[in-house]
């Protein structure tokens, strides 16, 4: 999305439509721009004067405002309403008030214009004691419409109110949107405005300072909150990068380990360091007995109890979460064991007393060969980051385990066929 106009224009549209449409401005939103439509709250983005949007988006908002209010002059009235009622941001207010008079403001039209949009060039063709001629040359490469002209007419007419002056008289002599090369405004103001300007000049600095301090305090709190959010996101991002790098390196390591017992120890170390898992067990499918059986565990106080080591789950017992994950091939997370349908007298649950459980299938070659089950013993449960990382890592673990099992089976077959021990041992070194 191009950055062509400041969102302070959008804020004025939202406020005006809400004022005249019983507080409802929902019809303004939707199908504005892909970048805006996907935001959690597009209105907040469009109200922020620190944001910029394309002329196309502003054109859509102005067109919708006209349709909602049944008023072809809505753009003009929106600017009038904004000048009379909307509190400008302190930066914009300083810029406007710094020029403190009509003549001084007109002589700096391009500077003022550039603070809010980049869609035109402004020329002060003539200026006298109480009248001036202004020409607007619109950028033909941008999606500007007659509504933009009306917005500017409203701005030039009512902007002196900010200085404590009276509205100007504006007459459009020719219009770019009716075939002319530019929009030409003839402006006139009464000499009585001069008194308001002088008065405003003496009191502007103090009023601007007071308003600036108040708004800067509010912005300071917003910035502090945003900083905390960004800082937290950076921490999470750095942690995720470390996890992904660790997964890459440890993935290489476990795929090079062929001894099953040694591999399972390596896997558990990885789960502890990379996935931040405190306690876990690995259970593999016994094809002959059609059940899951314990093969390795870590994180238990002392030795893994014999009851856990002897734990077996028939694959047809779908009420059991371990068997169910093996059959479906889909991970399952139980955030609160206490209020779940899990059997509390289950050996593992009874021994471990977890508050939450997460089970991930080990899949290789489109076949589930087992599961990894981890848990948490505090109220926060198994962290989302841990679950996501384990989900990514589990296929590598499955491949490594399958390779180690095939290697062990090959060793056994070579022994049965009478191969020399030295030849079998050389197999583990990649022979």
Quick overview:
The chain is α+β, with helices and mostly antiparallel strands. It contains 16 helices and twelve strands.
CATH topology of the largest domain: Beta-Lactamase
Name of the CATH homologous superfamily of the largest domain: GAF domain
Tell me what the CATH architecture of the largest domain is.
2-Layer Sandwich
**Per DSSP, what share of the residues sits in E-state strands of 2 or more residues?**
15-25%
| DSSP strand tally | 12
Which shape, going by the Cα principal axes?
elongated
Instruction: Supply the helix-strand structural class.
Output: alpha+beta
Under CATH at level 1, the class of the largest domain stands as: Alpha Beta
Number of H/I helices: 16
What would you say this structure looks like, in words?
The chain is an alpha+beta fold. The protein folds into three domains: 1-87, no CATH class; 88-207, H-NOX domain; 256-427, Beta-Lactamase (2-Layer Sandwich), CATH 3.30.450.40. 51% of the residues lie in helices and 17% in strands. It is built from 16 helices and twelve strands. It has helices at 8-20, 34-37, 42-47, 55-69, 74-85, 90-98, 102-107, 109-114, 146-158, 193-255, 260-273, 306-309, 321-328, 347-352, 384-416, 421-427; strands spanning 5-6, 52-53, 120-127, 131-138, 169-174, 183-188, 280-286, 291-298, 312-314, 332-334, 356-364, 367-376. The protein has a six-stranded antiparallel beta sheet with strand order 9-8-7-12-11-10, with helices on both faces. The longest helix has 63 residues, at 193-255. The protein starts with a strand and ends with a helix. The relative contact order is 0.07. Mean pLDDT is 82; it is low at 88-95.
């Amino acid at each position: 999305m191009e950055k062509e106009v400041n969102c302070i224009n959008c804020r004025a549209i939202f406020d005006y439509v809400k004022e005249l449409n019983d507080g409802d401005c929902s019809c303004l939103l939707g199908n504005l721009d892909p970048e805006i439509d996907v935001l959690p709250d597009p209105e907040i983005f469009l109200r922020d004067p620190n944001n910029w949007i394309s002329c196309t988006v502003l054109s859509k908002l102005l067109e919708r405002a006209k349709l909602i209010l049944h008023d072809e002059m809505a753009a003009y009235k929106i600017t009038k309403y904004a000048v009379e009622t909307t509190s400008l941001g302190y930066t914009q207010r300083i810029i406007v008030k710094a020029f403190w008079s009509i003549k001084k403001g007109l002589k700096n039209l391009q500077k003022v214009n550039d603070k809010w949009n980049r869609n035109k060039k402004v020329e002060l063709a003539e200026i006298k004691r109480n009248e001036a001629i202004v020409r607007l040359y619109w950028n033909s490469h941008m999606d500007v419409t007659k509504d933009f002209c009306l917005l500017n007419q409203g701005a030039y007419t009512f902007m002196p109110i900010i200085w404590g002056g009276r509205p100007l008289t504006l007459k459009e002599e020719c219009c770019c949107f009716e075939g002319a090369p530019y929009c030409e405004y003839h402006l006139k103001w009464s000499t009585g405005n001069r008194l308001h300007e002088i008065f405003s000049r003496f009191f502007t600095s103090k009023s601007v300072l007071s308003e600036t301090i108040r708004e800067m305090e509010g912005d300071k709190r917003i910035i502090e909150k945003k900083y905390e959010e960004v800082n937290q996101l950076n921490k999470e991002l750095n942690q995720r990068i470390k996890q992904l790098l660790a997964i890459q390196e440890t993935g290489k390591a476990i795929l090079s380990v062929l001894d099953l017992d040694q591999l399972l120890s390596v896997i558990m170390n990885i789960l502890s360091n990379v996935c931040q898992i405190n306690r876990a067990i690995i259970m593999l499918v016994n094809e002959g007995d059609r059940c899951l059986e314990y093969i390795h565990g870590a994180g238990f106080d002392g030795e893994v109890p014999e009851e856990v080591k002897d734990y077996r789950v028939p694959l047809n017992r779908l009420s059991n979460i371990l068997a169910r994950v093996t059959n479906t091939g889909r991970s399952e997370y139980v955030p609160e064991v206490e209020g779940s349908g899990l059997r509390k007298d289950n050996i593992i649950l009874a021994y471990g007393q977890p508050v939450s459980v997460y089970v991930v299938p080990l899949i290789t070659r489109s076949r589930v060969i087992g599961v990894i089950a981890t848990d948490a013993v505090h109220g926060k449960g198994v962290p989302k980051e841990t679950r996501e990382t384990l989900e990514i890592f589990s296929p590598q673990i499955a491949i490594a385990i399958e390779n180690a099992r095939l290697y062990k089976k090959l060793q056994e077959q070579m022994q049965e066929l009478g191969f020399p021990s030295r030849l079998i041992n050389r197999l583990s070194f990649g022979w």
